[in-house]
Amino acid sequence: MNLYESNESYQRKQDKFEKLSSCFQQVFNKDTLHCFTHSFLPYGSFRIGINGQDVDIVFLLNEIKSMNTETTFDETLHQLKHDSSTLNKHIVNLLETQINGNFKNEIIYYMKIEALFPIISILFNDQTKVEIFVQIELNNEQLIERKVVNDLHLPESIHGVHDIERLLVRVRSLPIFQHLLTYIRTWAQHIGLYGQVYDYLSGYCWAILCAHICYKHLSPIKSLSSIEEFSIDEFFLLVKQFFTTFAQFNWSADTFCLYPKSYKPVTYSGRPHIYQRGSMRIISPSPPFNNAARATKKSTRNLIIQGFQHVVQLLNSTNIITTEDKSNALEQILDLNNDFPNEKMKSIVQLIISSETINEFDSWIGWIKSRLSFFFSDCEETCHYTFQSQNTIGYQSTKNKALYAIAFQVDSTTLQQCRKFTVCLQKFIDQVNSFVNRTTSMKFSLEIISIDDWKLEQIKPKL
């Protein structure tokens, strides 16, 4: 199994980052702007240096107080600043013009996504995928007043960037942390416990957990030779500490955090305590110390705990003495099966998604995925159902059709006859149908079937 990214793959990503930064610099620079600055910053797996699918980047435009004369560009941005939506669109359109002008013959598809921050998603001919989050920070008097009321004396957080930088301070040895995180991510993805959109843990959550293990069980780097001499035996002990630590942690009652216990996290006046969001609480090491695991539900939390415990049981039941034993045990952990649906599940809600073009299809699936967590919350809170969410979209051979399954511990007849569940399901359907960019070719349907019928469907050839 290829766990680690090749040097060629990383260089391709680095090349895209540098070229994009250069083409944006043509428009956003000290000559064109006196009252704004811009930054182009990596975060996520690309910044950590591990094998991730995307190159995640933040384009940050920041308003500053300047004694210099306004440029024409400054004046335009100041006129637009009172309408954030219009300003965002203007900046995204400028970036789009630069991207198309500099990479016209290198792009397979380009897509703009409206989320908490605007996102530009690009797939290049060499299969490098880049996602650019556009963040604009203004000298907004209303924002300053709100921070004073809530006693927030904190710098504005740049999307994903501060989180990663604070995290890397805790890892002691970056190369060893990279290896551990890559290994754990591979395990989590393979057994179906990875992905915030499916209410499991995000890559950032797994990184926080790995950072804790490295900080607690590694010594500070004394020389490069200490990294080169890091053995399979030592790596095995690190992996074993990871699973033992988190299999024993009381996830239902306790909060996991990297910052000192003496530190009092920020609370917000008149708002629910941020610790109460999510069935697992893994606190980000960067202000305002949000719960990075806030998407988790009781159902997915229990599945993650079972995943930790399963590995511990495997290690305890295996005679591990020699280096070869330890190497084999590491392989066995990665060979564990994705237990979807597990033996407790009795029914499946299967989503059928399709569209005519790849660009539309990706946008359509992205929207539906963004609605899943709301549906999962309703299933637990309103219907009190335990569920198991699939952590991958099942793309069919036609490429523009996909299936996605959610398993439940009650049988299909009970699901179909439960009035509360019917209401929750219709609410989910209505949310899916509310997609503002939906075209007539974007199709969506679902079916409720038994586990046995679903398993029979999996045996049939994909159409």
Automatic annotation (TrEMBL):
Native organism: Adineta steineri
Domain Poly(A) polymerase central: start-end pairs: 177-318
Gene3D superfamilies listed in its UniProt record: 1.10.1410.10
Enzyme class: transferase
Gene Ontology CC: one annotated term: nucleus
Cellular location(s): Nucleus
Superkingdom of source: Eukaryota
GO biological process: mRNA processing; RNA 3'-end processing
Chief location bin: nucleus
EC number(s) reported in the record: 2.7.7.19
Name recorded for this polypeptide: polynucleotide adenylyltransferase
GO molecular function (one): poly(A) RNA polymerase activity
Family as reported in the entry's similarity comment: Belongs to the poly(A) polymerase family.
Assigned keywords, A-Z: ATP-binding, mRNA processing, Nucleotide-binding, Nucleus, Transferase
Reaction(s) catalysed by this chain's protein: RNA(n) + ATP = RNA(n)-3'-adenine ribonucleotide + diphosphate
Stretches assigned to coiled coil: none
Organism phylogeny: Eukaryota, Metazoa, Spiralia, Gnathifera, Rotifera
